[in-house]
Write a structure and sequence with these properties.
The chain is of the alpha+beta class. The chain is built from seven helices and twelve strands.
């Protein structure tokens, strides 16, 4: 949902940006009711435009309709990752069959990760999914870090050993299909190839020290997730 009147939403430019950076449906809200403006919002990437103030029942029904269309296009209504279930239609989260209370922002963050299962999503992208706002990457990292921490406290057995939402250093976050905590994965990489170092391409054993660029990849045969442990 994108409020085109919000200062940080940047109007139609914000709608174009949201459309370009996400495949989620966009429900745009605004005070302007001129047909030409509404048509411009739809051409900018909105899937629906509603004039404010919006009746809450109508708003909820329109959101459900957008999700149904997405589901009909091949997106499952529920995404399951081991013991974690994300119901995109009903906006519900369950862990081991138990309903977990989450805020709307937390749900949108988790849904963005779930619809990109196994892929890295940047902090800026996650913030746009949560609030529709844009800010610097550093600011996005700080805001998303807090939200991810709260989510981990709700979905992980031990939040200090997160196993669902993993931090891909320097790149963002990903929802991990496989079991195992982030710290246990960090203990595994004993062989890394540093793409660019002070002495050219070199082997780095158990460390990314010496890299001048924050990108590493596992040597063939390493059990570490691709690109999961980047240089600081």
């Amino acid at each position: 949902m994108l409020d085109l009147d919000a200062p940080m939403a940047k109007g139609l430019d914000g709608c174009r940006l949201a459309h370009a950076s996400s495949d989620l449906p966009i429900l745009a809200l605004g005070r302007r009711a001129e047909p030409a403006w509404m048509a411009s919002a739809l051409r900018a990437g909105a899937d629906c435009y509603l004039v404010k103030p919006v009746d809450q029942e109508l708003l909820a029904a329109q959101m459900e309709a957008l999700l149904r269309r997405r589901n009909d296009a091949g997106q499952p209504a529920t995404i399951t990752v081991r013991d974690l279930e994300i119901d995109l239609l009903r906006k519900k989260v369950r862990v081991r069959g138990e309903l977990v209370p989450v805020t709307p922002g937390e749900f949108r963050l988790l849904a963005r990760l779930a619809t990109n299962l196994g892929k890295v999503v940047s902090s800026a992208d996650l913030l746009r999914a949560m609030s529709g706002y844009d800010c610097t990457e550093q600011e996005a990292q700080e805001i998303v870090k807090v939200q991810v921490s709260r989510l981990r406290g709700k979905i992980d057995k031990d939040p200090s050993e997160p196993s669902y939402i993993l931090n891909v250093r320097g790149f963002g976050y990903m929802l991990e299909r496989r079991s195992g905590s982030q710290s246990s994965r960090e203990e595994q990489p004993s062989r890394f190839l540093c793409i660019r170092g002070p002495d050219g391409i070199k082997q780095v054993a158990g460390s990314t020290r010496g890299c001048t660029e924050g990108f590493v990849r596992p040597v063939a045969g390493s059990a570490s997730p691709r690109g999961s442990f980047a240089a600081p």
